[in-house]
Amino acid sequence: MANQEHLDILKQGVDAWNTWISEHVDIKPNFRRANLKETDLRGAYLIGADLSYANLKEADLAGAYLNGANLKKANLKEAELDEAHLTGADLSGARLVEANLSGADLEKANLEEADLRGAFLVGTYLNRANLSEANLSGACLIGADLREADLNAALLLGASLNGANLSKTNLCLADLSEANLHSAILVGTAALDANFTDCKVYGISTWDVQLDGAQQIGLIITPEGQPTITVDSLEVAQFIYLLLQYEKLRDVLNSVVERGVLILGRFGGGGLELLQAIAARLREMKYLPMIFDFYRPDSRDFTETIMTLVGLSRFVIVDLSGPSVPNELRATIPHFKIPFVPIIEKGRKVYSMFPDLLGYPWVLPPVEFTNKEDLLALLTSKVIEPAEEKFKERQALLQQLFNR
Q1: Distance (Å, whole) CA 222 – CA 200
Q2: Considering the domain boundaries, does residue 392 fall inside one?
Q3: Which helix (H) or strand (E) holds 278?
Q4: Whole-number Å distance between alpha carbons of 136 and 108
Q5: What is the pLDDT of residues 203-223, one digit of tens each?
Q6: Is residue 318 part of a domain?
Q7: pLDDT (tens digit per residue) in 115-143
Q8: Domain count of the chain?
Q9: Residue 312 lies in a domain
Q10: What is the pLDDT of residues 289-316, one digit of tens each?
Q11: 262: helix, coil or strand?
Q12: Is residue 161 part of a domain?
């Protein structure tokens, strides 16, 4: 129970309390289970105080010093805690429904299982705070600093997180359904099995976010007042928005798709020089060459990178002269109906399974060359023109299909 002497002094007002406690710095204030409803405690020195289970409903604690205080299971419904100092405070299981914590310092505070429904946390500092299983449904966290905070299994349904910093935050199993993440920052954030259904994500920044098992359905990427566009991936959301808003980015992407040529090889001993010579000639012809050098340890798998680059290419030139690229060709040729032009130095043999790939009509017969100069002389007539012919055949077929 609360210490009656401490209560009596506190009832004399904040000035009297602050003067007394400054003269008794070794005393730990005890207000356990005290009824302090609607009490004016603005600027009160309550560092390390025991306020567990206390009734602080509608109390005014604005600017109060509560660093390290024990507020476990305290009733702080509709309390004013703006600009309060709560570093390291224990608010586990506390009731903070519609409380005002705007601008408060809650670094490393324990808010596990706290009830923060409809609370105001505008610009609140929650760096490294424990908010696991807390209920923040409908809370206003605009501009809040939640870096490295633990929000594991927290409820954030309909919460306003506009401009909030969630870098390295633990959002695993958190429910953010219908939350507003406008301009929020998610860098290195863990969001395994989190729920982002129907979130507003206009302007969101996502980098290195762990999203395995996360629900990402109906993400709204457009601002208020504009026609709604939804996607089903946080990482895709910012990319799609950029495509819609920035003409230069669209032009760059279109240029890559229209003029991109992927050059594959895995060379040592001068092989890369050949790739660069091909690329230089392609540039002269207004193509956008992309060189992928396969000179790397066999244990590393770049197949996914190859598939992405192939998808951005008009056609592919692949050299089979050195150690060959069977895995990459097997993963791409059957799935991308764009021209593949194999080239090989005379006297060398293709790998044993390559002839099977010639059964795909978009794979041209290998072009043999004796040296770099010979290949460059053959490049236009034997490589580029046949590839362009195949590309145009495919485009004509697609146009015919779509115009039916």
Answers
A1: 8
A2: yes
A3: helix 271-284
A4: 17
A5: 899 999 999 999 999 999 888
A6: yes
A7: 999 999 999 999 999 999 999 999 999 99
A8: 1
A9: yes
A10: 888 655 444 444 567 777 878 888 889 9
A11: strand
A12: no
